[in-house]
Fold:
Amino acid sequence: MISKRMPGPGSGRSSAGWRERLLALFARRRNLLARLAIGLITAAALAAFMVDWTPLDGVAGLKVGDISPSDIRAHSTIEVVDAELTEERRLEAVARTASVFDHDVILARHQLDRVDRAFREIRSALGTGRVAGDVPRPSQTTVQQPQNTYDPAFLEQELNRFQQTLAVPLRDTDLATLQTLRFNDTVQRDIKELVRASMRGYVALDRQNLPNRGPIAVIRREGSQEEELRVEDLSQVRVVADARRLIALNAASDFSDRPPHIRETAVYVAQQLCTPNLRFVASETAVRRQKASAGTQPVSRTYQAGQIICREGDALDAWTLLVLEQMGKEARAYKPLKHFAALTALLALFLAMLAFFANRFISKFRRRTTELFSMAVLLILVGSISALLQSVAVGLSTLSTSVPFTAYGYLVPVAVGGIMVRMLMNSETTVVWSVVASFICAIIMDGGLWLGVFYMVSSVTAAGGVGQRSERGGLIRAGVMAALVNAAMVLTISGVEHLGLQGGAWAGAGLGRSLSLHVFFACAGGIAAGILAVGLVPLFESLGFLTESRLLELSNLNHPLLREMIVKAPGSYHHSMVVGSLAEAAADAIHANSLLVRVGACFHDLGKMLKPQYFIENQRGADNPHDKLSPSMSALVIINHVKEGIEVARRHGLPRPVIDMIPQHHGTSRVSFFYNKAVEQLDPSKGDVDENDYRYPGPKPQTREAGLMMLADGVEASTRSLQNITPGAVRAQVAKIVNHCVADGQLDECPLTLKDLHTASETFIQAVLSYHHHRVEYPDPLPSQDGRGRTTPGSITLEIPSSTPNPDLASSATLEFDNERQSTRPQPTDQESSSEPAGSERSQER
Structure:
């Protein structure tokens, strides 16, 4: 009975499993601590580049007119506000703020209504009605005393009520005139006409709150409705005094036919009724002026780090002293250590959150400790170069101003990191690294948004130009490509800033000689990135990273391990070469790393060198040592070649990706031959055969290349055992191998798709058929005649016996001398040609 049983809790395998899980837990914790340490150290190093550790030059005690003792420059970006000019701008803004006035549109109507009501009431009280009295002719110059037939108290009461209703205190002469006229509607109409004309438009109390020049803000109120108007022409506004003078002028011209005393009374009453309809609103005006004052932007000048404030020997003016005073205040308030600690914490949090996101949501992001360490090294490298160039720029700016300070920012070779990360890892990881590096370097260089965008584009462009190639020419070409894109980016950024779409510290770099220098520095930065990448490749190869140049070195058949293998295990060597060819062809077909899979195939069976006689391809007809071993022991020997191969590869310093292929090319597959043999020899009284004892320890293939090598290894071994090589037989055998690997779950952990498997299978079939091609049988040479007509043999055959003492290995060779062609070629002996039939196993191996 055959079963797949899991080991019991008391078995040795179970305890070993617990130990393995415990060790794996400790390993994960160590990795976590290592990654945290890498992140913290990286954050601290980058923060150190950002902090200004240089103390400011001593400028205390200087005053206006003193001579600067040395060149004084800004050690960091500083913004100095010009308080005097700012105050001038604020006052100008306040002066431009329009004064607010209330315009009571219906006030004139109210005054006219009051006149009508007053006259109507008194006429009704005195019984005069609306009958018009006699108006004296202009020739009459005396005021006629009215015939008073009313009770004096009653008359006084009504006259007082008239004045109250009219809201105008009248003189005795005016009251007498109105009584004489019996308060008729003629004088009433005269008064109303004079009031209406005088209060038409805007009437202010005085000119105290009116500006000399417009505009003013007029809030037009009509009942509950409001409308704000802007009055530019102040000639439309009259003061009360002017309006009252206008009343007198209008009366003299319009009512010239009235007696003087009547016209004077009408003028007096109308002037008293003429009141301002435009009222200054002080509270609203103050609010608006306060907003205008608060909204005035401070007038300031920004000095970039390293910019000269004053040179040695220059006389100090008030503005320079203001700048120096501001620098001194900031210097006294600046605490480098606190700034460093805060920046370290901020950068550590930034890196941690970015790594968490990339690890969680970017499937191809590289997260191994070695890879994170390499990315950290590259970050620190470009950060240190940025800090160095910043210091150089500060120093050179004191000597010469011919090179703009901002041009040095374009010289930072951030693209070298993009090149290295793309070459050593993948494009997804490159984008993440480029974002971080661009952000950091732009801050170090005080460059702002556009410089960060420049770094990002430069890094991604260089990464796209190099791919995974590491030859010097490819790296230099990537740098040149980055230089060209850098130049285009500088022109674009300068155009954007020059057009005013984005201001900032980098504005003003878009004209003439300055632009040429920026373009030159940008091109130099791109080319420097390519050159620097050439020098960094060996360093990262020493850390275990696999580059194309390293793979080409390992693919050299003169490699010491391969030379040793061909001597100790020639069959395994030949098998490895064929597997490499199969896997390489399949990798090319599905666009995988064909060079990596070929190198991995060359070294995947290194462990067989230690016990070559236990593997059939190396036995060469000798006794099979497995005949004397139990199936379990034979399986242990076979399986152990993986472990031994890993040890050999590590001793010889093979890269990690190549070493990983040694256990992955078998995965957790079963040694079927010895498993089946164990089942056949099973003693029912001893229990079942544990299938786990006959499986490789794994892991299963983790990459497309490892999966292809597993399939190629199985295809090569199985098709070699075919007796009749036909397209149908090869196709069936390849399909059997591929389907078995899929059904056994060996390809569950590698990203090979069904389309990849189909393409690889077709490639395997074509490659196997091409290896087992047929040749035309050589005919025996025919006799020929010489020039004298004699028949001569076609060749003379000499037999050279072998001096090998081993009879199994003894052989002989023949040399055929062609009389006509004078050439030699080896020929099989009769013994060889007759001892092995065509198609035999040994014949196929040879």
